Amino acid sequence: MVNQADLVIICGSVGVAFGVFIACLIYFGIKWHKKRARLSRSANEPSLATLPIRTNGSGTSIDFSASLTSSIATSRSPNPQKGLHSTWWNHQNKDGFSSTSGIVKYSYKEIQKATQNFTNTLGQGSFGTVYKAIIPTGEVVAVKMLAPNSKQGEKEFQTEVLLLGRLHHRNLVNLLGYCIDKGQLMLVYQFMSNGSLENLLYDEERELSWDERLQIAADISHGIEYLHEGAVPPVIHRDLKSANILIDHSMRAMVSDFGLSKEEMFDGRNSGLKGTYSYMDPAYISSSKLTMKSDIYSFGIIIFELITAIHPHQNLMEYINLAAMDYDGVDGILDKQLVGKSDLEEVRQLAKIAHKCLHKSPKKRPSIGEVVQGILRIKQKRLMKEDTMSFTSGNFSRTASQIEDQHVELSRITTMNHREMR
């Protein structure tokens, strides 16, 4: 009996141990499976991807990475304001984000003092009010304050900080700092003394020369080229318009307002139509599919604005279509300020590029690289023409000088002959 009891105890103990072992295997197996599934989702989820930026020429970009995990976490938060201040802001580790991006974090009091208690207003936009400010370094800046209760503005705020913290190019407006304090969201930009292209074009008291317009078109194309071909992954601006092109004191243009921008890796996700209707690609409107060619279409509209000074809200596309059927072509809708003050051949060449950008089929529109090359060819032809004229003018001057010298020499010889005859 004793032997049987011992045997039962031994068998029971072995069974319990085996059961615990099996349970442990199942537990760790489930835990491993969940971890692997989570890693797999992370690898396939664009919002969790690391977004590197490569250097693309001198002074164009900073080579480091940033994660957009936080922006998704915030957008899922039931309370957007709380989500922004806690989830996203804490994820950036406050000063850590500023140090890696080079963007300065300001307090509310610092901004309040810099803007003279928010009294120096520059303008009003969809995002909120823009103020002129002087920061402690003495630099003049523009401060954009998010309008109260703007849920869409919070998302745009995040996008601006995350993108412009990584994207740096001479034709993109530089984000200098930001403020998340006392329930306020503010962005600090470099100050652009000549305001927006829209204001310059439609201000009757200002006159934009053809040279300035051609240079502005070139500057915008370089900014878009960096977004499309210099950033990794490429960035689609999504809201290119003359109001979002800012002009500095040297009349050089910079692309601004990246609140609606998206990385190309988001392509295919239907997040609803975003942008400004009169600049919006018809193919994007019909399909809701966002591509880089949508930016190309918007740029085509801006080029025609530069040529005609007709706002898209004033049926610019109708004027363009009518001009295409008219004998005079684009000459017939040329801005009156440019009549007799511009090179018509250059105007026609730039209009030809714009027409290609507005092609109904996105696939047949040029890439931004091709647009840049087209504009550069116009400028190169001008330089060659100027060099030729300069050369011709120089030859004429030298010839005239030689003739004058010959006359002087002939006069001297004649005088000497008269003296000898005497």
Describe the 3D structure.
By secondary structure, the protein is of the alpha+beta class. The protein has two domains: 47-190, 2-Layer Sandwich (Phosphorylase Kinase, domain 1); 197-380, Transferase(Phosphotransferase), domain 1 (Orthogonal Bundle). It has helices spanning 2-44, 69-75, 80-91, 95-101, 108-114, 151-164, 197-202, 210-230, 282-287, 292-308, 316-325, 344-357, 368-421, and strands at 50-52, 65-67, 104-105, 121-124, 128-134, 140-146, 175-181, 184-190, 235-236, 245-247, 253-255, 262-263. A six-stranded mixed β-sheet has the order 3-7-8-6-5-4, with helices on both faces. Strand 5 and strand 6 form a beta hairpin. The protein is elongated. Keywords: ATP-binding, Kinase, Membrane, Nucleotide-binding, Serine/threonine-protein kinase, Transferase, Transmembrane, Transmembrane helix. InterPro entries: Kinase-like_dom_sf (IPR011009), Prot_kinase_dom (IPR000719), Protein_kinase_ATP_BS (IPR017441), Ser-Thr/Tyr_kinase_cat_dom (IPR001245), Ser/Thr_kinase_AS (IPR008271). The chain crosses the membrane at residues 6-30. ATP binds at residue 144. Residues 116-383 form the Protein kinase domain.
Show the helix and strand layout.
Blueprint: H1 2-44, E1 50-52, E2 65-67, H2 69-75, H3 80-91, H4 95-101, E3 104-105, H5 108-114, E4 121-124, E5 128-134, E6 140-146, H6 151-164, E7 175-181, E8 184-190, H7 197-202, H8 210-230, E9 235-236, E10 245-247, E11 253-255, E12 262-263, H9 282-287, H10 292-308, H11 316-325, H12 344-357, H13 368-421
Parallel strand pairs: 3-7
Antiparallel strand pairs: 1-2, 4-5, 5-6, 6-8, 7-8, 9-12, 10-11
Helix pairs in contact: 2-3, 8-10, 8-13, 10-12, 12-13
